[in-house]
Amino acid sequence: MCVFSCVFFFQAEDGIRDLVRSRGLGDVYKRQSLVIGTIKTLEKRYGIEFLIRAFANIKRKNPNKIKLLICGKGTLLDELKNLTVELGVQDDTIFTGYINHDQVQFYHNKLDIYVAPSLEESFGVAVLEASACNKPVVAVSYTHLTLPTSDLV
Fold first, then answer.
1. Three-state secondary structure of 64-104
2. pLDDT in tens, 26-60
3. Fewer C-beta within 10 Å: the chain N or C terminus?
4. Rounded to an integer, what distance in angstroms lies between the CA atom of residue 24 and that of residue 109?
């Protein structure tokens, strides 16, 4: 049974080049880096702080070209940006801000690995979207995500 066969995306072709430039995605767009990231509202329950801290650890151990892409808006935006500065990864972290639903596929396709560090999830739609884009997913094991493990890394 394919859970993901019912997930459909519509990609907005117009303005993609401008979108890439305006969101600072030049390096990511050229695919010169391994890109990990998430598409979530920037709120405490989604654990974005843990993703940034883990990314900083990865950068210290392996400083090669790896980028962190965080798509979304929320009350923690400034705090999370400050955390990237504190941890020294601000130059390798891209915050896109709010993205429209019709841009979700575009951003999933910029990722090499989707990370779901959520402390709680209701359904896990973002994980389904990433999987529908054939992206490996890293998810926190204590959330309510109960997807087939063959689709999770």
1. CCEEEEEEECCCCHHHHHHHHHHHCCHHHEEEEECCCHHHH
2. 555 455 679 999 999 999 999 999 999 999 999 98
3. N
4. 16
Give the type of residue at 111. L
Structure tokens that stand for 67 in this block = 């980028």
CA-to-CA separations, 146 to 6, 141, 151, in angstroms, rounded = 18, 9, 11
E-strand stretches of the chain: 34-39, 66-71, 93-97, 113-116, 137-139
CB-based contacts of 38, cutoff 8 Å, min separation 6: 46, 48, 51, 69, 70, 71, 72, 114, 115, 116, 117, 126
pLDDT in tens, 104-151: 999 999 999 999 988 877 667 888 888 888 888 888 765 455 544 444
Query: Quick one: which of 133, 118, 129, 128 has its CA closest to 148?
Result: 128
Half-sphere exposure of 90 (CA within 13 A, CB side): 11
- 3-state DSSP assignment of residue 24: coil
Handedness of CA 13, 7, 123, 1 (dihedral sign): negative
CA dist 21 and 34 (Å) reads: 19
